[in-house]
């Protein structure tokens, strides 16, 4: 039997349906792979082997009994440890929640459980999803499977590394400013940030509520599309959840993979996100993928989005403001860590201050205090108010751009994966500027995707596509077209260029 | 309008009090430098945030989101207390709320 961990999710689903192998075999193969490489990569905070095998056995029994199952039944999945899982420890990679076992489940976890998808475990992240390297985890860093001296990106770094290391065929991540797309780019995998409201945020530990969105991650565009269909759909538990139909993503990806699908598609290259500020190797890989798309019939359009030059600045006001509010719940009273001060009176106030001093890492403290400042009387209009106006300008730039282009494209990140430890040497603002290409989509609520463009100096480069709000299908169709054209030129998928672990 | 006055260590200390985070002296010094660097950069939003531009607080605005007024799934008291640092008699046990003074 072939190595089951090398098959993509839809191939695994088809093989189980035709009886070639069982979910128990598929799940055990991934658990064995996790055992073999986890010491090197560190994708997971918690591995849930027993629960995964129990779900797999149940699916196998139901399939043998002739029950009608979900198309992805039996395909294992990993959830970012920001997603609340009843009975399974959920940490947000923070000492604040170490050992917390939730009494309820997030909607996205419930949906994968209802589909019969075994949970392999909870993947590593930057604490409360704040970071771009997964080094801000209280439980240790994750290595990039392409080069273990590099970071996998973040904050969904464990989710992406698990795919690139063949520990999991599918991952659920979250993206507040690029946290699904940038790690996908850094690991040669596919990551999607859907339209805001496409996927429920109920039971997803909140970072910045007007920006947070759950995203499907896989090794192919079609796999991400199939997972998106499992996760999406209206949820009365989330008042920002859209009532749109959550279907057609996989069909769009399949249509896009057919030769000739890119003919006549207008790809708008965002001037502000290419050229200056982008590493030459990244730019070259992006340009090569663009040329492949053009040769396949796509039309390349130059797009000007002047307000994008202010997007990172607006984001680093809006996001910390929402963070300072959302993280006020970690008060040491109802769940999570409680620490009493070593001296002075023991009151709710001093316990809260001591708990947050001990429980939060440096980046979380920085953002909470920055947000507290941006929202304080006297500065609110100048900072938070102005940032909200930039948000309007970014939306207007998108609206105008989508009159001239079907999707907007750019490199997903201006660099390839950094060295482990390098981010600690950078000043915070330089690090934040790495999010320049991904942040506009979160500010405007539009969907975005990163697909592999190629390789630069032995590391993968991501190709970002952005579509109008509620046009996620367009990303899947054109994204699959780019993926197919790039793979045909290379003779294999980009991830095949990664060295064996 | 432009407000980009530098933030002082005393202000950081006050903000940390408001945010209920006990900072060490080293953390306070490092954060003062970080916040000044970040704020001098993000203040650029004021260049384009003119009076005629409306603010956007939510990417896709939905209004009057309602559900039927019926009792749904809720946690039991035991479940709600299951992660509490301390509890007693089916309630959260918390430190003294009001100070002595």
From TrEMBL, chain A:
Subunit comment: Heterotrimer of A, B and C subunits.
Lineage: Bacteria, Bacillati, Actinomycetota, Actinomycetes, Micrococcales
Enzyme class: ligase
Reactions the enzyme catalyzes: L-glutamyl-tRNA(Gln) + L-glutamine + ATP + H2O = L-glutaminyl-tRNA(Gln) + L-glutamate + ADP + phosphate + H(+)
Protein name according to UniProt: Glutamyl-tRNA(Gln) amidotransferase subunit A
Active-site residue numbers: 80 (charge relay system), 155 (charge relay system), 179 (acyl-ester intermediate)
Function: Allows the formation of correctly charged Gln-tRNA(Gln) through the transamidation of misacylated Glu-tRNA(Gln) in organisms which lack glutaminyl-tRNA synthetase. The reaction takes place in the presence of glutamine and ATP through an activated gamma-phospho-Glu-tRNA(Gln).
UniProt KW keywords: ATP-binding, Ligase, Nucleotide-binding, Protein biosynthesis
Family statement: Belongs to the amidase family. GatA subfamily.
PROSITE patterns xref list: AMIDASES
Entries under SUPFAM superfamilies matching the protein: Amidase signature (AS) enzymes
Automatic annotation (TrEMBL), chain B:
This enzyme's EC code(s): 6.3.5.-
Keywords, alphabetical: ATP-binding, Ligase, Nucleotide-binding, Protein biosynthesis
Top-rank lineage group of the source organism: Bacteria
InterPro entries: Asp/Glu-ADT_sf_sub_c, GatC
Pfam families: GatC
First-level EC class: ligase
Annotated segments matching region Disordered: 80-101
Catalyses which reaction(s): L-aspartyl-tRNA(Asn) + L-glutamine + ATP + H2O = L-asparaginyl-tRNA(Asn) + L-glutamate + ADP + phosphate + 2 H(+); L-glutamyl-tRNA(Gln) + L-glutamine + ATP + H2O = L-glutaminyl-tRNA(Gln) + L-glutamate + ADP + phosphate + H(+)
Iron is among the record's keywords: no
Keyword Membrane included in the entry's annotation: no
Assembly and binders: Heterotrimer of A, B and C subunits.
HAMAP family: GatC (MF_00122)
PANTHER family: GLUTAMYL-TRNA(GLN) AMIDOTRANSFERASE SUBUNIT C, MITOCHONDRIAL (PTHR15004)
Family that this chain belongs to: Belongs to the GatC family.
Reported function: Allows the formation of correctly charged Asn-tRNA(Asn) or Gln-tRNA(Gln) through the transamidation of misacylated Asp-tRNA(Asn) or Glu-tRNA(Gln) in organisms which lack either or both of asparaginyl-tRNA or glutaminyl-tRNA synthetases. The reaction takes place in the presence of glutamine and ATP through an activated phospho-Asp-tRNA(Asn) or phospho-Glu-tRNA(Gln).
Protein name: Aspartyl/glutamyl-tRNA(Asn/Gln) amidotransferase subunit C
Gene: gatC
């Amino acid at each position: 039997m072939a190595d089951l961990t090398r098959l993509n999710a839809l191939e695994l689903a088809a093989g189980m349906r035709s009886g070639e192998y069982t979910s128990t075999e598929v799940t055990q193969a991934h658990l064995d792979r996790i055992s073999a490489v986890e010491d090197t990569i560190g994708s997971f905070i918690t591995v849930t082997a027993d629960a995964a095998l129990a779900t797999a056995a149940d699916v196998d029994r139901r399939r043998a009994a002739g029950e009608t199952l979900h198309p992805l039944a039996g395909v294992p999945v990993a959830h970012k440890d920001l997603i609340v899982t009843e009975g399974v420890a959920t940490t947000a990679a923070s000492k604040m929640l170490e050992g917390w076992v939730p009494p309820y489940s997030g909607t996205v976890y419930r949906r994968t459980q209802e589909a019969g998808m075994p949970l392999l475990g909870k993947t590593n992240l930057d604490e409360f999803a704040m970071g771009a390297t997964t080094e801000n985890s209280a439980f240790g860093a994750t290595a990039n499977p392409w080069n273990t001296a590099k970071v996998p990106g973040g904050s969904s770094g464990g989710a992406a590394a698990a795919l690139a290391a063949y520990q999991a065929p599918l991952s659920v991540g979250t993206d507040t400013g690029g946290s699904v797309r940038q790690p996908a780019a850094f690991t040669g995998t596919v990551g999607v940030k859907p339209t805001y409201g496409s996927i429920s945020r109920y039971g997803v530990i909140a970072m910045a509520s007007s920006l947070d969105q759950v995203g499907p991650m896989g090794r192919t565009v079609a796999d991400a599309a199939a997972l998106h269909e499992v996760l999406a759909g209206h949820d009365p538990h989330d008042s920002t959840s859209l009532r749109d139909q959550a279907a057609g993503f996989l069909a769009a990806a399949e249509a896009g993979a057919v030769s000739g699908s890119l003919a006549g598609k207008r790809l708008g290259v965002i001037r502000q996100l290419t050229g200056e500020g982008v590493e030459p190797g990244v730019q070259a890989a992006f340009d090569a993928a663009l040329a492949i798309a053009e040769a396949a019939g796509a039309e390349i359009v130059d797009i000007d989005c002047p307000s994008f030059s202010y997007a990172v600045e607006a984001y680093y006001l809006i996001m910390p403001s929402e963070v300072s509010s959302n993280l006020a719940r970690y008060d040491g009273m109802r769940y999570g860590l409680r620490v009493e001060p070593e001296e002075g009176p023991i009151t709710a106030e001093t316990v809260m201050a001591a708990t947050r001093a001990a429980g939060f890492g440096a980046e979380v403290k920085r953002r909470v205090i920055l947000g507290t400042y941006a929202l304080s009387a006297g500065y609110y209009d100048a900072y938070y108010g102005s940032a909200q106006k930039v948000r309007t300008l970014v939306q207007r730039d998108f609206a105008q751009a989508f009159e001239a282009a079907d999707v907007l494209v750019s490199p997903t990140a201006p660099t390839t994966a950094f060295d482990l430890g390098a981010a600690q040497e950078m000043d915070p603002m330089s690090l934040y500027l790495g999010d320049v290409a991904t942040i506009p989509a979160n500010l405007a609520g539009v969907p975005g995707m990163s697909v592999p463009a190629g390789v630069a100096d032995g590391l993968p480069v991501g190709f970002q596509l952005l579509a109008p709000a509620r046009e996620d299908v367009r990303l899947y169709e054109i994204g699959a077209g780019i993926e197919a054209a790039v793979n045909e030129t290379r003779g294999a998928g980009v991830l095949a260029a990664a060295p064996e672990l | 309008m432009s407000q980009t006055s530098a933030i002082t260590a005393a202000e950081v200390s006050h903000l940390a009090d408001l945010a209920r985070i006990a900072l060490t002296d080293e953390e306070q010094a490092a954060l003062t430098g970080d916040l000044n660097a970040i704020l001098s950069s993000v203040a650029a939003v004021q260049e384009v945030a003119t009076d005629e531009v409306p603010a956007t607080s939510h990417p896709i605005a939905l209004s009057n989101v309602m559900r039927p007024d019926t009792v749904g799934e809720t946690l039991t008291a035991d479940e709600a207390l299951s992660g509490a640092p301390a509890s007693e008699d089916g309630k959260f046990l918390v430190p003294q709320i009001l100070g002595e003074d």
